[in-house]
Predict the 3D structure of the following.
Amino acid sequence: MAALMLDMYEGVRSFLLSKPNNSPHVSGTTALVEYRRRRPFDSETSQRVLLGARNQIVGRALSNTEPVPSIVSTWPDMTEDVPKAPGFRLDDLNIELANLQGLASRLNSDTKIEGLSVLGILKKATELDKRLVAWTVTVPNDWTPSPVFGPECIPQSVRDAGLYQDHCNIYKSIFVANTFNSYYSSRIKLQLTILVCLKHLNTGNIDTASVTALEIIQEMADT
């Protein structure tokens, strides 16, 4: 838990300073989980710590455009008894996204990566995007945000800070808001990966596909 809190602090600090987050605490957390894996994660507290560690490791990989450490792929045996909540399932999809991002980031130097072609990466990205959209159908109904308008609903301090649009979306909890923010960010990152692939292809429908990807990015930013 201490390692997770330290990494959270480093993440906020790097964001405020506009610097990459190179904190070693994620690696420390991974090592601690591996050491602890000989004992079952059967208590609610230990399961929360395990899922928190998993979430931060995946989040770091996405932020740094790098694959998720391969050791995390061996963790399913430790999460068999963990409730498969929406956040857990989203992390599963984000592991695939991070690994796909890592491959796509190398396209500028080589269009053949470990037997996977640009077209292959694009196909996987398109399929993963459909699965991300399908994820939204599985969340509880009360997770749907409620838009509010006007000064009677939006505090002056929020309006002074600046509204992106003329309304705010109200979520059930900070946790739900954070989970949806992760979803929106993941879809944006996936569209950027698709755009990278399209730049390496010379087919007639590139313009249409690129416009679609850009429209999805705008939609996610506006949500």
Remarks:
- Strands lie at 112-113, 116-117, 146-149, 167-170.
